[in-house]
Amino acid sequence: MLFISHAVSIPSDQLDIQAMRAQGAGGQNVNKVSSAIHLRFNIKASTLPDFYKERLLALRDYRVTKDGVIVIKSQEHRSQELNRQAALDRLVALIRQAVVTQKPRRATKPSRSSQAKRMDKKTKHGQIKSMRGRVNQD
């Protein structure tokens, strides 16, 4: 059982976890040991609440396929168990991040004093730049 929040969890049978050989450098051992983890989670077939499903399917994330499957590959650790835990942690983080609702942004205007300061600064900078010109010797 994978706990997302106090009310939401994912049963282990809905997670497809496969061990595979890791990529990259590692010497002879990398060719013998299947320490990388490939995690697949089908959003549509899961028992998550509909709100969670909608938010996850609307995500523009490279880990969510067109079919609504989250694919996470973990190979940063040398141990299969640590990679499994890292993949599960990333899945939980992705789901939690997807359901966070951001408060609506209120449009604001800069204050008059900040506008005046900005204009004064621009004027001063322009004067400094104009002083950099060629000196006339009359």
Notes on the structure:
By secondary structure, this protein is of the alpha+beta class. It has a single domain (2-98), classed as Double Stranded RNA Binding Domain, CATH 3.30.160.20. It contains three helices and five strands, in the order ββββαβαα. The strands form two sheets. Strands 3-4-5 form a three-stranded antiparallel β-sheet, covered by helices on one side. Strands 1-2 form a two-stranded antiparallel ribbon. The radius of gyration is 27 Å and the shape is elongated. The protein starts with a strand and ends in an 8-residue tail after the last helix. 14% of the residues are buried. The model has no long low-confidence stretch (mean pLDDT 84).
Strand content of the residues, in percent?
15-25%
**Uncertain residue ranges:** none
Mean pLDDT: 84
Please tally the β strands and state the result.
Answer: 5
Quaternary status of these chains? single chain
Largest sheet: 3 strands, antiparallel
Spell the H/E element sequence. EEEEHEHH
Amount of helix: 25-40%
And the CATH topology? Double Stranded RNA Binding Domain
Across the major sheet, the strand order is 3-4-5
CATH architecture: 2-Layer Sandwich
- Tell me, what's the shape? elongated
Distance between the termini: 88 Å
List the main descriptive attributes of the protein structure presented here.
single chain; 138 residues; alpha+beta; Double Stranded RNA Binding Domain; 3-stranded antiparallel β-sheet; two-stranded antiparallel ribbon; 5 strands
